[in-house]
Amino acid sequence: MLRESTQIRLSQYRSLYDVIVPKDNLLRKIKENINFSFVNPMLREQYCDNFGRPATEPEMMFKLMFLKKLYDLSDEQLVQNAYVNMAYKYSLDLDPEDGMIDSSLMTKFRKTRITEDILEEMLKETIRQAIEKGIIKSGTIIVDSTHTNAAVRPKTVTQVLRDFSKQLRKKIYKNMYELSAKFSEKPDKTAELAEEIEYTRQLIENTEEEITETKNRKIIELYERIKELLDTDRIREIRSKDDEDARFGHKTTASTFYGYKNHLAILKKASLRELRSLAAGRRAENSWEH
To answer: What's this model's pTM, rounded to 2 decimal places?
Structure first.
């Protein structure tokens, strides 16, 4: 359930933000110009009113999702960075000495609390405030769409997962050879997806202790990426290990392509021009009125 009132903050360390986080820092500008208080009311129906422990504020969870996308981080990397990065903590409205949530809460929030429709409404409200505060000027956003083919060939989900586990094994062989003794037998090349998922989960579990203790950041990041893909079930959406965002889309009812839709957004009466790439299967509006 959600808390009915915000907690009063009496930290003696909040003044540190004035010294540590520069005035021109991007996250400071966002915090000082965008009011995210609209998030909690929009997600209230996703929470029980009378039962359960007080939940982590949806506003903070939404901000974490924003940071994750902005800096292209895994859940684990995001939580680790938010624990030590003062600009992150300032933007999340935390005190410098505050701790951080467990990364598993990010998965739960995506699966059970937020939907595409709600995300779209949150984006519209954020844009409205940005215009109102003068961050961008009022006008009409005109979107010119083109199609771009991905530079990789699409594969089946099973093949993609097999590529990820193979890459992890290769890095372990090269940098932590003794850990390879914990590898279980690989599935046959004709194995179904369920068997490949089970093998990869076992690989992650068998190597978890040693990998989390190593100082090799590349191995840790790959391990965390695979674990997140399995935990969120997003692995079923990916068609290439080397380009996780590319998707199948339609140019016409009879013509398909694999890649992206590129959208050039021009805001009238403003100098803002934004090039935005959407996965091929996603929908974009032709224009937004402000």
So the answer is: 0.53
Q: Give long-range contacts, CB 8 A cutoff, 24+ apart: 277-283.
A: 277/148, 277/245, 279/245, 279/246, 279/247, 279/249, 280/147, 280/246, 280/247, 280/248, 280/249, 281/247, 281/248, 281/249, 282/247
SS3 per residue for 180-204: HHHCCCCCCCCCCHHHHHHHHHHHH
Torsional sign, CA 165, 168, 173, 179: negative
CA distance 182 to 208: 11
In angstroms, the CA 44 to CA 244 distance is 32
- pLDDT single digits (tens) 254-288: 555 445 454 444 444 443 344 344 444 454 444 34
DSSP 164: H
| Paired tokens of 114 | 């937020």
* 35, burial (CB in 10 Å: exposed 0-12, middle 13-18, buried 19+): middle
Of 207, 202, 204, 194, the residue nearest 228 (C-alpha): 204
- Asked if 247 contacts 255 with a C-beta cutoff of 8 angstroms, the reply is no
